[in-house]
Specification:
Largest sheet: 5 strands, mixed
CATH class of one domain: Alpha Beta
CATH topology of one domain: Heat Shock Protein 90
Strand order of the largest sheet: 2-4-5-7-6
CATH architecture of one domain: 2-Layer Sandwich
Oligomer: single chain
Number of helices: 9
Distance between the termini: 153 Å
Structural class: alpha+beta
Order of helices and strands: HHHHHEHEEHEEHEEH
CATH superfamily of one domain: Histidine kinase-like ATPase, C-terminal domain
Number of strands: 7
Strand content: 5-15%
Shape: elongated
Amino acid sequence: MSPTDDLLSGIQAFVAQPLGLLLVVCALGLTVFGTLWWRLHRRLRRLMEDVATLAAGRALERQKIDPGRVFDVAPVLNTLLADFDETRRRLAAVTEEMEAERDAARKADHSKTHFLAAASHDLRQPLQALGLFVAALAQQPLPAELRGIVGKIEGSLDALEQLLDALLDISRLDAGAIEAHSALFPVQSLFARMAFEFSPLAERKGIALRFVTTSALVRSDPALLERILRNLLSNAIRYTSHGGVLIGCRRRASELRIEVWDSGRGIASADQKEIFREFRRLGGAVEDGRQGLGLGLAIVERLTNLLGLRIDLRSTPGRGSMFSVILPLVETPKFASQNGDLSPSSSQNDSDTAVARRRGEAAGD
């Protein structure tokens, strides 16, 4: 037997024993573990070297940057803050100046308004005297040419009085110099006075004017309510060249609506809010040739606000308009259909038809 065979036999005998087998397994495990640990150690060392190299490179790059080229924001921020403070100071000064000018304008406007409100009697007195002189002159026997001139003077004087009245009224309203005094009175009393005054004007224009008799009672300021209705009626006649004008009352639930209908030019939807602004007139010629100042409806709106009432407008261009003043209803013993009021209706269409029929009768259709 050769030495090699003897060695192999010895190894087999050693491995065949339990202790020998355990030693062999331990030796193999240590060998494998050592190999794996060495490979992992080498990779970790390379990784650490790479990290150190990267850190060193970045540090080197930072060292290459010129500190003088670094943008310093502190001076810029200080400049911006200083500019902001200066702008804010100037803005405060401008705002204060504008407020002072606004207060001065308000005081001037308030003084002007109070002056006009207080001086209304003194301003009207010369015109009233002039009117008396012109009326006395018109009663004298004059040649036809001079009588025509006197007639024109009367017309101009009447227009001037109306313009002055409108200016003084809106000034007094803005100054709070007009107070409302509520009382219970029949609407028919207002209708009677307005019919006496406006019927000749409508007749001269060749249009029909009708007041629907009513027994309605209202609680409001009679003088101010009459001024509202007079302005509405005057506008209706002024802007109506054919057909007619109708004014009457309509009861609805707990409200009374005093409605003024006309068959005039009508008002477009876009202009229905604008017409209540002062000095606002719609385009086109006025039927009676008087342009006015555009204060009539502005006075109407201020008076309705003063009385706590509402005003409603419905209009169709080319077909006419309807202004209604809405008041709380004061119940009367008689029903509306027995006293000539515009008939109440459960539907809007029926109400409109009833009024349209009466308006057609007033227009002579």
